[in-house]
Design brief:
About 75% of the residues lie in helices and about 0% in strands. The longest helix has 30 residues. It is mostly helical and about 425 residues long. It is built from 16 helices and no strands.
């Protein structure tokens, strides 16, 4: 069976995640701290240029739009030049563009710089995920994914808290600090991953032709992952960043530092369930945690716009974060199952990432327009509905985890055929 791995048994106790997975996790933690610094500052900073909610959302969306447009090329670049080179260059581009945001004097400066940052972001995201999937043992994909995501989200717990404090000092300070953090990550990652990612010409040739997007699209589980990725991009990377800080400050009438607290609580909810979701994903399958996570995310996200008490808002944010944490590991592991072990799935992963970026483009603008014209409740209800749509796809999707004695997985598309 090409594209799927052979039936798998339980992981022997001696088998451990490769060192490279831990390095990628540490890097994601540092990147997320910087991202968390900027997240509460960006919408408020954009509003300081005297623009409306939709225009503030556009600055978030243009970053995702740039990622979306560059994603197909980034997949090809990863397959041609190797993950590590693309990863480091992408981080450097984000560092330069983010640092320059601190010196923006016009609204269009932010638009241009965020677009440039989106190109770098998709480069390091696709390459990091490709490395993660290629180097993780097949029976530990859920745990590898949860570890990587946990690093990112723990950084997001710390980042918004520090970012909220920096907002008191200056709206521009978080951008400079984030750029500095990324420079450190580039240096450490290049040192620790050098000669350890199997990117020689002989090793690249041994993997065979890369996985293909159009054949992956024939698999119903990959299609379900695309819809869930779209919903995740809309809610987590779009509306959460663009509207939650504005809702806290302008609807709940709380100080700007509370925006950082709200984002940190959501990230804490993610971190609380990621490790559990990773183990469940490798033990009982990809579908159960996906179904529960999407259902919880839909209900909690839809309720956010109706909450009027600040403390209750934090509780609902925590629950929404927990639902989102249940989704990430099984979604990534299912995509890895479709690609198969050893393959470079640059274009398949790029398509998966594009779905998230498309959600992050549409979500902030549409939800921002709804919040401005109708109110925050409808904006968050629509966001919750996207998770319900994804839930419908996953109810019909087949399980992709194969374990000894439990039968075979559905026939997978032949992803590596020329």
């Amino acid at each position: 069976m090409v594209g799927f791995d052979a039936p798998r048994t339980a992981v022997p106790p001696a088998v451990r995640l490769p060192r490279e997975i831990w390095v990628l996790t540490g890097a994601s933690f540092m990147i997320a701290i910087g991202f968390g610094l900027v997240a509460p500052a960006l919408p408020v900073f954009v509003r300081s240029f005297d623009v409306g909610y939709a225009a503030a959302g556009l600055v978030i969306s243009v970053f995702a739009l740039s990622r979306l447009l560059f994603a197909p090329l980034s997949g090809q670049v990863v397959s041609r030049f190797g993950e590590l080179r693309v990863y480091l260059v992408g981080l450097a581009v984000v560092a330069a563009s983010t640092g320059a945001c601190a010196f923006a004097t016009e609204y269009w400066h932010l638009i241009a710089l965020r677009a440039l940052g989106g190109i770098g972001s998709t480069m390091f995201t696709v390459s990091a995920l490709s490395l993660l999937i290629r180097l993780a043992p097949p029976t530990m994909r859920g745990r590898a994914s949860s570890l990587w995501a946990t690093g990112f989200l723990l950084g997001n717990v710390i980042g918004p808290l520090v970012g909220g404090v920096l907002l008191v000092i200056s709206l521009r300070a978080p951008f400079l600090v984030y750029a500095s953090v990324l420079v450190i990550v580039v240096g450490l990652s290049g040192l620790l991953l050098r000669n350890r990612t199997h990117e020689t010409a002989a090793e690249v040739a041994a993997t065979g032709p890369p996985a293909r997007f159009r054949t992956a699209l024939a698999h119903p589980t990959y299609r379900a992952a695309l819809v869930a990725s779209f919903s995740n991009g809309w809610a987590v990377f779009g509306v959460r960043v663009a509207l939650v800080p504005l809702l806290v400050v302008e609807a709940l009438d709380q100080p700007e530092a509370w925006a950082g607290i709200a984002l940190a609580v959501f990230a804490a909810g993610n971190a609380a369930t990621l490790v559990v979701a990773g183990r469940l994903t490798d033990r009982i399958g990809r579908r159960p945690p996906m179904l529960v996570g999407l259902a919880v995310s839909a209900v909690a996200t839809g309720a956010l716009g109706f909450v009027t008490e600040p403390m209750l808002f934090l509780v609902v944010s925590l629950v929404a974060g927990m639902g989102s944490g249940l989704v990430n590991p099984p979604m990534n592991a299912a995509v890895a199952d479709v690609i198969g072990s050893g393959a470079r799935g640059g274009t398949v992963l790029a398509g998966f990432q594009m779905a998230s970026d498309l959600g992050a483009i549409i979500g902030p603008v549409l939800a921002g327009a709804l919040a401005e014209s109708v109110g925050f409740p409808l904006a968050f209800v629509v966001t919750g509905v996207t998770a319900l749509v994804a839930l419908g796809f996953w109810i019909r999707a087949p399980e992709t985890l194969v374990t000894a004695g439990k039968g075979s997985a559905p026939e997978a598309p032949e992803l590596r055929r020329d």
